[in-house]
């Protein structure tokens, strides 16, 4: 088994270069069973949950900052910086199984994204006649709303003036 010294990801022996960080240095053979290797990336509560589960099962782990957060911890009350969780190579399989067990990693190897952005809705193309009608109706409604705001403001100011005469 080989790993990238920069991002700590593991690769099969046939792989020559890291596909994650695009490091152009050749991958290094894992010779020491205590070599830290990448397990998963997580932030905030999810990172704490994963690290607690690993520690409770006797697996030493560490996290390194993957992506620095702009807003400081003191403002938000917790750290939401994305961190890579590293475990010793000898404990990788057990750590992986624990992450699958707690739902942090899907069994097929895909990482479950919790804070995923909502997907954009698909819109149908509108016919030109319908588009023109919508524009005209929208313009008319805008003029009506603007007139109501102006007349309403005028009525309210007239009422308030009447109270002081």
3D architecture notes:
The protein is α+β, with helices and mostly antiparallel strands and about 160 residues long. Helix content is about 40%, strand content about 15%. A three-stranded antiparallel sheet has the order 2-1-3, with no helix packed on it. The radius of gyration is 29 Å and the shape is elongated. About 15% of the residues are buried. The mean pLDDT is about 85.
Provide mean pLDDT, rounded: 83
Helix content: 25-40%
* Helix/sheet category: alpha+beta
What gap, in angstroms, lies between the N and C termini? 91 Å
Alpha plus pi helix count: 4
Strand content: 15-25%
Strand count, sense and closure of the main sheet?
3 strands, antiparallel
Q: Indicate the low-confidence ranges by residue numbers.
A: none
Tell the overall outline.
elongated
Strand arrangement across the biggest beta sheet: 2-1-3
Assembly level: single chain
How many beta strands in the DSSP annotation? 6
Radius of gyration: 29 Å
Task: Report the order of strands and helices.
Answer: EEEEHEHEHH
